[in-house]
Amino acid sequence: MTIQAQMKRLTPPAIRARKGGEPIVCLTSYTASTTRLIDPHVDLILVGDSLAMTIYGLDSTVGVTVDMMIAHGRAVARSAAHACVVVDLPFGSYEESPAQAFRTAARVMADTGCAAVKLEGGTEMAETIRFLTARGVPVMAHIGLTPQSVNALGGYGVRGRKPEEAAAILADALAVDAAGAFSVVIEKTTESLSREMTERIAAPTIGIGASVACDGQILVIDDAIGLFTAFRPKFVKRYAEIAQPIAAAAQAYAAEVRARQFPGPEHVFGP
Ligand code: KIV
Predict the structure, then answer these.
(1) Would you place residue 229 in the very low, low, confident or very high pLDDT band (cuts 50, 70, 90)?
(2) Is 185 in the pocket of ligand 1 (CB under 6 A)?
(3) In angstroms, rounded to a whole number, what is the distance separating the alpha carbons of residues 38 and 231?
């Protein structure tokens, strides 16, 4: 990619400047071909550790490694010309200390060419977010339901229904905002809590299962296009149903190969 093309890309400060303005459109992507298709239409592409389930068939994001994120982050960053590309820091690669987080983030940014990293956690990660942003690493925070903590949380339920839990999540939002996060993903919280957080912090909020009150929205691409069918959370809207066409194409191909109809004369090289 040329320097001119890179400069046209949306940057973390440009995303931050959209607070309260036109909604920020975000999707996940993990591959070059999907990135090329979605890039002209979205503001931000997240190489999410949801690739655990969508790409690798794992049960949770806990087993994702830095090498996995770098491999997919590189493919996505190389293929996006417009959207701001953010790569998730996986579980265990940043929680120990700000220095550990910086080492991981610097490696991810250098090896992929992404513009920013995302990490999960609120008040407990504020010091790390401050450390990273002061050292040239833009950070997208992720609060509410934090899937990397599924074992501690005991599941993927809605967060913030109880007043004390809502107060803790609001404190998380204020802490990551004060620490300098350029945007904050809010996952699976009630509409009233999402609205209050959006009104009270300076960084744009990006909702997933967090209502239209947020400054932007994100969906996992495989959910949005009906490719991931193992289960469908209530907050997912399907904008396409591509599972059936893929299965039908495989079935048609198999039938033609077995009937010796494919390859046909038009697919064959002459002498
Ligand atoms: O990993 C991911 O895809 C995410 C989004 C769901 C926000 O964190």
Answers:
(1) confident
(2) yes
(3) 23
- Check pocket membership of 145 for ligand 1, CB cut-off 6 A: no
The answer to whether the pTM exceeds 0.90 is yes
Distance between CA atoms of 148 and 65, rounded to whole angstroms?
Answer: 12
Note the pLDDT of residue 37. 98
Q: Tell me which residue has tokens 């940014």.
A: 109
Name the amino acid, one letter, at 195: R
Task: Write down the residue that tokens 């957080």 correspond to.
Answer: 197
Q: Cα 216 from chain centroid?
A: 13
- Map out the domains of the chain with their CATH numbers: 3-240 (3.20.20.60)
- State the amino acid at position 202 in one-letter form: A
Task: Exactly one of 96, 127, 164, 187 is catalytic; name it.
Answer: 187
CA 142 to centroid of ligand 1, rounded, Å: 9
Q: According to the model, what pLDDT value does residue 1 have? A: 52
Atom of ligand 1 nearest to the CA of 88: 1
Tokens of 183: 């945007």
Ligand 1 site, residue 48, Cβ cutoff 6 A: yes
